[in-house]
């Protein structure tokens, strides 16, 4: 997998899976542009950071234009920005709560992918990886908002893949399982919750951000040129028992 001097945009770059994707790409000598609501935390000569909301279409377009102005092209995009659901049954959700999750997770992915795809189309080459979730196909209570948002990402990925196939652009998604990140730390640091969760995973352990970023790098590489419109589970085998 040759990433040297290639250029990748990663949203949600300040934490969790997004940050891990940035670090792995930088280790592979790629140039990385991070987009996040927060100040950048990565210090590397090959890293550029933009503070932006994925729902701010104008700002996202400016980030993409600045990336092209600096590097001349964009080789890949990782849509890792997202939020969890409100942990309520759907009938208790307010419209505002519902819209926030759907907007960030689904519309945010659409907004950034649209801006980047236009540049990739001009070069007739590119890779887009959207972060979905096992909850897009395997459900539990109190997750209607989150499941809907990630299910939409999965379906949208396949539709994007068809739209972009004529331009030699591959679009895929990754469905993480139980991953230990800053957002899940409070829950998984409870020994009982962690033990119950790991008991459901055939591999016997929680995933780490690096487990997801490794799959993302495969999908960003030339090794995945014949893979498009697919969702890859990265869940330690959790989905096999469901």
Furnish the topology, listing elements before pairings.
Layout: E1 7-11, H1 16-27, E2 31-36, E3 47-51, H2 57-71, E4 76-79, H3 95-123, E5 126-131, H4 144-164, E6 169-176, H5 185-188, H6 191-199, H7 209-220, E7 231-234
Parallel strand pairs: 1-2, 1-4, 2-3, 4-5, 5-6, 6-7
Say how many strands there are.
7
CATH H-level superfamily title: NAD(P)-binding Rossmann-like Domain
Stretches with pLDDT under 50, minimum 5 residues: none
CATH topology: Rossmann fold
- The helix/strand class is alpha/beta
Name the strands of the widest sheet in spatial order: 3-2-1-4-5-6-7
**Fraction of helical residues:** 40-55%
Order of helices and strands: EHEEHEHEHEHHHE
Query: Could you say how many structural domains there are in total?
Result: 1
Summarize model confidence as the mean pLDDT.
Answer: 94
Number of helices: 7
- CA distance, first residue to last residue: 33 Å
What would CATH call the class?
Alpha Beta
Question: Which features would summarize this protein structure in a list?
Answer:
alpha/beta, 7 strands, Rossmann fold, seven-stranded parallel β-sheet, single chain, 242 residues, 7 helices, 42% helix
């Amino acid at each position: 997998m040759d990433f040297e001097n290639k250029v990748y945009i990663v949203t949600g770059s300040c934490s969790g899976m997004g940050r891990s994707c940035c670090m792995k790409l930088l280790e592979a000598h790629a140039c990385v542009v991070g987009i996040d609501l927060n100040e950048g935390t990565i210090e590397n000569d090959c890293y550029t950071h933009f503070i932006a909301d994925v729902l701010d279409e104008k700002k996202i377009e400016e980030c993409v234009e600045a990336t092209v102005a600096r590097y001349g092209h964009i080789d890949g995009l990782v849509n890792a920005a997202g939020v969890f659901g409100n942990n309520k049954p759907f009938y208790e959700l307010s419209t505002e709560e519902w819209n926030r999750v759907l907007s960030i997770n689904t519309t945010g992915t659409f907004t950034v992918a649209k801006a980047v795809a236009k540049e990739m189309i001009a070069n007739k080459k590119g890779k887009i990886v959207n972060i979905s979730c096992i909850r897009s196909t395997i459900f539990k209570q109190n997750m209607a908002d989150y499941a809907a948002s990630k299910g939409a990402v999965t379906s949208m990925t396949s539709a994007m893949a068809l739209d972009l196939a004529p331009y030699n652009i591959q679009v895929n998604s990754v469905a993480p399982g139980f991953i230990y990140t800053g957002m899940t730390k409070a829950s998984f640091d409870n020994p009982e919750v962690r033990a119950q969760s790991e008991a459901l995973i055939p591999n016997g352990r929680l995933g780490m951000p690096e487990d997801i970023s490794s799959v993302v790098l495969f999908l960003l590489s030339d090794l995945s040129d014949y893979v498009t419109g697919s969702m890859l589970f990265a869940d330690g085998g959790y989905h096999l028992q469901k």
